[in-house]
Amino acid sequence: MTKFETVIGLEIHAQLSTKTKLFCSCDNDSFNKEANTNVCPICMGFPGMLPVTNKEALEKGLIASLALECTINKDSKFDRKNYFYPDLPNGFQISQFDQPLGVHGNLKIILNGEKKNIRITRLHLENDAGKLSHEASGTLLDFNRSGTPLAEIVSEPDIRTAEEARIYAETMHKLLRYSGASDADMEKGMMRFDASVSIRPMGETKLYPRAEIKNLNSFRSLESAINYEVKRQIELWESGKAHATEVTVGWDEEKQMTKILREKESAADYRYFPEPDLPPLFASDELIAKCKAMIPELPTEKFERLINDYKVSESDAKFYIEDLGLSNFFEECAKKSKNPALSNSFVLSILMSKLNEVEQKLSDTKITATDLADLILLIDSGTISNNVAKSTILDEMISTGDKPENIIKKLGLTQISDTSEIEDFCKKAMEANPKAVADIKAGQGKAMGALVGGVIKISGGKANPKMVNDILNKLLLQ
Ligand SMILES: [Zn+2]
Q: How many domains does the chain have?
């Protein structure tokens, strides 16, 4: 039986986070607005209207291109892409054809702990269409989204599995959000995927006709649709009926299957020509430098730095890069406490599980990274025990936002490190549990736990655990 290799390329449409639409001054945020209220004659495509390019959209496009290591075409332009569809009032889309904003970029993804580079073919700007909703009574049109600025990001066919495609899309999602180019809110449809999928016998380098799955709007549907499509293509191949031409397919989320919509259009079908109503775009060196300076540390760099600088595990680093607020909180705490290991365990295990229990977000609490660092310093100096810190004090910090020093004073929780006082506790614990003492003396080391537990209880959790162990050992030898 033939073994197959899957070849996948992705086109991603991401809404750029600008104040206004691409060619008019309508609000770029149509969320929760009544249908057809966020429109003007320009984005409705009325005859005689002149578009004006939104400079902020050019900047956000440049930021995304630079974050993706693209070469910038300082001279680029807009082109008309002609096609008829009811959600496109102009009868054409304003896009970029042969001079896109950015070309030849890279996006590194982490795949099974290894870095893999996916080449980016191009990034170009274009405007979005309106929205159709099909009701029982007919089809409704809402043009609020019409004219929204999009970056279309096209990858080379470097992706080999559905899982890899999902990881690429998730990495892109984070990069766009980190860089500020797009809010990429999936729930609001700000990021959508088209996946080109083909198969070939393992070892061949030729590309066979692909199927393009249109308009996938979640990471899960992206992965499921590719998996389904690969299975379908292998079946066709094996029964001698593989597609001879490229096709466009749609994904039916309910039935979990793709269906063929039409033969895929080629560039010639769109009769591109330079947009006559807009001057060419020019990105000066100053503008490029300004945009470059606006790019912060990106997720893959952050992932590697967290592992290198703080020795956190790969899975912890992955968790942190999903949540910038949390990772900044951790870093601040680790730097101030100079104890990254304990900071990591306090933030990710202890604090997060407490917050999850009460379904609270870190940003909703009054606890600060500086206060948590202080708490860790108090453990390190032996002022309080780890146990008291992670229970009573941390709980109080979360609920009141009070500083750990104040809580310790208020509740009298200072750790007891006085030898004679601890010796007293130990003697009491031994008297209370003669069986444990006898067991230990008979060589059963396990019984030690019961004695230590006894001391901690008698001391109200305040006895320094290391000293308790040392002193118990000494007393048991007598
Ligand atoms: Zn408008």
A: 3
DSSP state of 346: I
Question: In the numeric block, which tokens belong to residue 432?
Answer: 């209370």
Residues 237 and 269 in one domain: yes
**What is the value of pTM for the model shown?**
0.82
How much distance in Å is there from the Cα of 48 to the middle of ligand 1?
Answer: 14
Residue 52 sits in the same domain as residue 67: yes
Of all helices (H) and strands (E), which one includes residue 133?
Answer: strand 131-135
Smallest Cα–Cα separation from 312: which of 339, 285, 287?
339
Same domain, 285 and 319: no
Ligand 1 midpoint to CA 26 (Å): 4
Q: How far is the CA of 29 from the centre of ligand 1 (A)?
A: 12
Q: How far is the CA of 417 from the centre of ligand 1 (A)?
A: 71
Residues near ion ligand 1 (CB < 5 Å) are 24, 26, 40, 42-43
Q: Which domain holds residue 327?
A: 299-411
286, 305: one domain:
no
Last residue of a domain, one of 411, 432, 449: 411
- Between the CA of 147 and the centroid of ligand 1 the distance, in Å, is 7
Same domain for 205 and 132: yes
Structure token digits, residue 18: 């600008």
478 residues of the chain, pLDDT tens digit each: 789 999 999 999 999 999 999 999 999 999 999 999 999 999 999 999 999 999 999 999 999 999 999 999 999 999 999 999 999 999 999 999 999 999 999 999 998 888 899 999 999 999 999 999 999 999 999 999 999 999 999 999 999 999 999 999 999 999 999 999 999 999 999 999 999 999 999 999 999 999 999 999 999 999 999 999 999 999 999 999 988 889 999 999 999 999 888 877 777 789 999 999 999 999 999 999 999 999 999 999 999 999 999 999 999 999 999 888 999 999 999 999 999 999 999 999 999 999 998 888 888 888 999 999 999 999 998 788 888 899 889 999 998 999 999 998 888 877 788 889 999 999 999 999 999 999 988 888 888 888 988 988 888 878 888 888 899 989 988 7
Which of 293, 318, 342 represents a domain boundary (last residue)?
293
Q: Which SS3 state, helix, strand or coil, does residue 299 take? A: helix
Q: Ligand 1 center to residue 57 CA distance, Å?
A: 14
Contact present, 233 and 242 (Cβ < 8 Å): yes
Do 384 and 331 share a structural domain? yes
